[in-house]
Please model this.
Amino acid sequence: MIYVGLTGWGDHPTIYPSGLAAKDKLQAYAAHFPTVEVDSYFYAIQPRKNVEKWVKETPRSFQFIVKAYQGMTGHQRGEIPYESKEEMFDEFLESIQPFMEAGKLAMVLFQFPPWFDCKKDHVRYLRWCREKMGDIPVALEFRHRSWFSPSFYEKTLKFMEEERWIHSICDEPQAGEGSVPTVLHPTDREKTLVRLHGRNVYGWNKRDEENWRSVRYLYRYNEKELSEWVEHVQTLQKTCKHIYVLFNNNSGGDAADNAKQFLQLLNIEYTELAPRQLDFFS
Model:
């Protein structure tokens, strides 16, 4: 099956009735897409009550992709707000239990920062993370090009297969060592993750500017580019059962529209979505 969704549900005005309260947006979102990335976990491990609410608000077949907390992937600046890394992972695992109990956890995404390059210490840390996550499906996304350099390309993919990491395949600007190429190689027979970040080369590396988040993912895919990804996804399906495609190009609010367009190109119409909310004042 192909699951198409977005990274987060808070900021997609084209799919919500006007004036919709933030607390009601997930229910409205679930009327359009069967999966979502829970990006709020990156900033803070979420209270269990939040997760229980999200599980209750979505259809039985809905799938969540939980983004690992920034302290788990080395993004955290300064000291982590936990006594140890073990405690941090334990808190995270406890928090996601309601997703698992409801059968709604597709995977946990470990997206590592641009400075997480291919070296022995980092490989050891990846093994440690995988061990801590047990049997939970986990996806791995790199941001440093060294992992797919000619000398490490095959070794990286073999490592991911042996350590049971789901490959998070990226479409992103090719903007130096802080970006990775699109590598159409599933490392898990059950699940593959695809994340479409846009192709804004100019905005990708502008981290020193105050408004970099507003331009980093500022990109709208055209039909030709989306059609290329239709072919890519169909190729991935030949060796992997479930493909999850997330649009992250939302600096300008383009993700939802591109995801809808992508579904049309795939000729997919989901049947187990939440009921649509009527907007009597639009």
